[in-house]
Design brief:
By secondary structure, the chain is mainly beta. It contains 3 helices and 29 strands. The two termini are about 35 Å apart.
Amino acid sequence: MQRKPATRTYTKRRSAEQEAATASPAGQAQPQAEQASVRRGSAELLSEPLNVSCHVGERFFTSVVLNNQGGARVDRVKLRLDYDPALLRPVRVSDATLRPLLAGEGRLNSDLRGGQIAYEASLEAPYDGRGMEMLTVEWETLAPIPRTEIAMRAGPQGGNELLSGDRDVLGKADDPADGTLGTQVSVRPLGDDRLRGALLIDNPASLREVQGVDPHGGVTLSLAGPVEPLRAGDLFAVDVRLTNPEETPVDDVRFTLRYDPAVLEILDAAPSEHRRPGDNWIVGGVNLHDAPFQRDYPFDFHLANEADNRRGVAVYAMGLSRARALPGGTLARVYLRALAPTGQTPLEFVFDGGTATAVRCLGIDVLGDLEEPNDGAEGLRLAIAPALDDAATVLPAAGP
């Protein structure tokens, strides 16, 4: 399973019930810090994946990802990961993705006995891109525990800062603890030698033993568009649909759509007549419409929902703090305008080794076949005829 790319991050603070459900039993190590609330509209740092489950002695990877949807200018970074050294051991740390942008070498200062990885670097030129992977860490698990955290805490005391000159642009300006999210790790006793040295993502059946979930695979994503012919100038809707015939537990749903911005334009759901402003999980920018579908898909990690009509890319990513079997149905609705006639234009899911489009359970991609990371999602090809002289037509998506 490859790592996923940077995305906008917006999460709620975890409820007392959720904290109680994930707390370590008395006498066992506790997470080092409550996860900070990550709010929309600021630069953010998160450790991905959000959840990892594995056996003692196994290794896994996490990435520190910058999410910069607001385009903040960053010229210096200070990163810190806190962990329990009795439970986890960092094996390797890499800044390979960030290194080409640096002015000189990055500085890594790790306290393995104290459970801390600290990294600092200056950029050759200010970075205002939407996001990137900044640091990758390979970990080894040392002891079993129901849950521990690879924590990221914001601000000078927490050790994580995104600096623009002397100003920290991480999180909200009025909340020094805002803007970070760590990784929750569950480690199970090995029990025997059958799985020694094997990553859990290669043994999905063992999740049944670890968390009481059974990832069958077979989840699909598809696009349902209008059945009527399209003409240039028409407004229409496309539904993003999920099916889950095996009732596979899911805790992470994400997809990236690619389209030709000279032919199609995605319209923002927020100011339209389709809903009241504020109903979406995420507002700001050009959003897909998910407000009507939140009862069936009650996500409590809100990671991304934005279309970029300059690049012809739309990204949607949501998560659950606890895996659950999501029902089949419409996940989000995309409102579009046909800009120009064409014989056929694709609106398609983007696969990037299973990172841009994926449905996961504890890090395992259950979209399509469990053994194939790039299947299980089907896009559309749309034909657009020349415009008529009369006004544009509004066409609904196919089906209910």
